[in-house]
Amino acid sequence: MACSDSRRRRVWTAARSGTRSGAAGFAALLGLTALALGPLARPALAELRWRQGVFPVATFLGYTSHFGQRVGPSGRSEPHYGLDIAAPMGSPIRSWWGGVVADVIDDGACGVGLVITSGPYEHIYCHLSGSAAGGVYRSGPVALGPGMAVRGGQLIGHVGMSGRTTGPHLHWGIRYQGRWLNPGAILKAMARARSAR
Fold it and tell me: Among 90, 104, 117, 195, which is most exposed with the fewest C-beta within 10 angstroms?
């Protein structure tokens, strides 16, 4: 496996901690509070901040699963800590924000994936195509490993079907200080910031 068992336990144990903390993060984000935005708590400055975000999939086909409680592939109700974005197999995936690769994942749920940290934010990209041999993610011209810096909008991978999935898509999750946020709310904040120009 490409990432350590203890690291994987920390990432996915937090994912199972419940949607209440995700809802709190969502509320903080939409409310533009100091908790979600730190020193950029004033709404005018907060709007400017979200302009830097980049939609992570270059070829968008639609959303296939929302953040929160859902009926999973097993047919049972389960929490879903991200947003599933459908795209053609092999479509480019871009980093939502500049940051540093914290982990390369290779497991039965996320499949091949990346964890990138940007200050107090941690963004997770799952179901990528390519490989995670030796702790380095490789797909086409992309080769990323822990500690490597990435720019916002940089090509970081390609859409695949690794892990637990029924079709090609990107599972995109975001945590703020350990609490899951609704990526849909972040996309709305990014859209508001761009329309405020």
Answer: 195
Q: What Rg do the C-alpha atoms of the chain give, in angstroms?
A: 16
pLDDT at 48: 60
Query: What is the torsional sign of CA 77, 78, 79, 81?
Result: negative
Closest C-alpha among 118, 77, 93 to residue 171:
93
Q: What is the pLDDT of residue 56?
A: 95
Q: Which domains does the chain have, with CATH numbers?
A: 5-195 (2.70.70.10)
pLDDT of residue 102: 97
Residue 194 contacts by C-beta under 8 Å, 6 or more apart in sequence?
51
Model confidence pLDDT, tens digit, residues 49-70? 778 899 999 998 887 777 767 7
Contacts of 54 (CB under 8 A, 6+ apart): 94, 95, 96, 97, 152, 153
This prediction's pTM: 0.75
The ranges of the chain with pLDDT < 50 are: 1-45
